[in-house]
Fold each of these.
Amino acid sequence: MSRLKEMNRRDFLYRAGMLGTGVLLIPGADALFHREAGLQLYTLGDLRKDIYTGMKKVRAAGYTLVETSGYTDKDKFWGLNAEEFRRLLNDNGLRSPSGLYGIDLKGNLDDLKRFAEAAAIVGQQYVVIPWLFEEWRQNADDYRGIAEKLNEAGELLRKTGMQLGYHNHDFEFKDFGGQTGYEILLKETDPQLVKMEMDIYWIVRGGADPLDFFRRYPGRFALWHVKDMDKKDPARNTEVGTGRIDYRKIFAAAASAGLDYPFIEQESFTKDPYKSIAESAAYLKSELLK
């Protein structure tokens, strides 16, 4: 049995065992809303400089979950292979249920197969596509083609017991004859094969309402990037709870959205990033994960 299949077999057995306790394991149900503080590691810039100290500081800031980003065949996880990175996480009391991977959606998806193997070794359940190159998304037909490829990638991952995710920015909200790119992706992808990682900041920045999407597409938004918008400058983000986005209202709709894991993310700073993420973790745990 391959390492990937074995790790997903263990996850299945754990979940199956939970059924006997009467806990209903449906994405979005409270049983699967992991009430732990998660951090998207892109927040911290070039962790390759000292990934060991970085993970210690992440744990000290109040996090138990991390989402990876920037994995490549050459650089791996900030210079560490999958086994080494998982060991580092374990040593610091951290887990990584999700990762962002730059999949070539115009290719044959061979890179997805390799990345899924690495993700499984780390212990990740979600493999998330974080970006669409501009030349891939010029019109509505381009988005329909992307949706078809996402379904193909989602089916490939499903056979391994893993889940594909798609992370938005604001470019998906360009209108194409009364329909945005984001709407096309939601309508043209199979809800069982493709879950959305909603970057709430970029949804708001794109002029849309997260709660409206939760109502119209229940259960689709398994992952969230919890990133607040600066009150004075919407082009900047800030510590969660200090900006203009009403996260209390958004988290109140977590079950209908299908939330599984929320991850803090921040890209603009007015103070030391580790102080910022500690403040966001404290707010997340005291106000939003109750």
Note: The first strand starts at residue 38 and ends at 40.
Amino acid sequence: MSERKCGTCSLCCKLLYISELNKPIDKWCGHCRPGRGGCTIYADRPVNCRTFVCHWLAGHTDDLWYPARCKMVLLQMHKDHLLVDVDPNFPNAWRREPYYATLRSYAAPGLLIEVRIGLRCVGLDADGTEHEVYRSQAHIEGRPE
């Protein structure tokens, strides 16, 4: 498999909190030009941006999970926690097939699948059971509480 590149996708520049830029979740970064060349400060981008690699880019998922296509960015938070950040403009993207079935298949004992849509976080179990996961906005953004 060839090395993957972001290409025209910059969904992480919208969905993720970037502390160094004081960029909130679910808002386009002021330095991003989606579909028009990407990051305008690419050479000088913050460490959080420089080191970020989504599941698709890392090769952990197939091309169906290209974030610009599926409207989700998958992040491995810990070995036992997969976070699915969903574009709030497409809040049901994670429920579409084949994504929903795949997310359910990832859910296993000891692995938390957490779907974030805005400030709402939903835990997903392998049997399709869903449960609200309380997260403060600070926690969602990765800030100290």
Note: Residues 43 and 50 are 9 Å apart (CA to CA).
Amino acid sequence: MKLMKKSVLVLFFLLVLIGCAGRKAEQPQPVDFRTGTQGLYLSFVSNLPPPKLYDREPLNIMVQVENKGTETVGPGDVVFLSGFDTSIITDIPLQGVDIPTLEGRGPFLPQGGVDTISFRGRIQPFSSRRIDRYVPTLLLTACYHYETIASAQVCIDPNPFAPTSIQKVCTPSTVSTGSQGAPIAVTSVEVEAAPQKTRFKINVQNVGGGDVFRAGADALRKCSPYAAGLTFDEVDFIRLADVSISNIHITETCKPRDNSGHLRLVNGQASIYCEYGAPPEQSPFLTPLNIVLQYGYRQSIARQVEIRAVS
């Protein structure tokens, strides 16, 4: 009888241990989320709008918006519908529709937020216009703010010309950083060591396929296809929000920047030059170089529809 009780207790404890191990295995694991070259991803929902419809019918359009990057998108960011004659297709809000809050990907969130946006218009009768067919290309344009956060592990050597007999854990060199889950990427950091000073060349590129413009509400309003449009001194600008190393902010050493901290992309690319001073008596060491970029971004998709007169 005692042997049976012991066997039952042993079996009970084994089941408890197995259950605990199972629960531990089910715990979410952090993922490498700062990858990819997209911010928002837009797509028309199937058959909304349909490829063919008739006048006097409602025009229903539904778009899926997915945040494939790491920065939260939300109210204040807007989607516009354009590309049509506003006297033929009416009731479409020309001020656009706010993008719902969509969280970005995170260490325990491998997929960002997903939602839908709807436009409902009405097609006016063709009879008074003496036309029997109208084929517009509907253009959907998203205008939103975004941010890139990049980190590169760089080698700092305050005394690069020290005797070669001194053991060094690293040698300053170019570091490839890839993509950071955003349409603007820090692609690489070139490191040049000098006595008591390290220089960085930070290479930036527009990899998202859309248009980049200055961060701020003024430029965001001009992004609308119904506005006067973004000007030459607003397009292809990004704001260098912060550059830091060893918990020391070195943004003020970085060039080129205008008075508002922006730099311009040329052919979708730019380079930022920054400096960091380290104590000469310190031996070479590896440390993260952190970079934060802020900007507005515009991207579009299109779909053609055929509208026929009711016979």
Note: The first helix runs from residue 2 to 26.
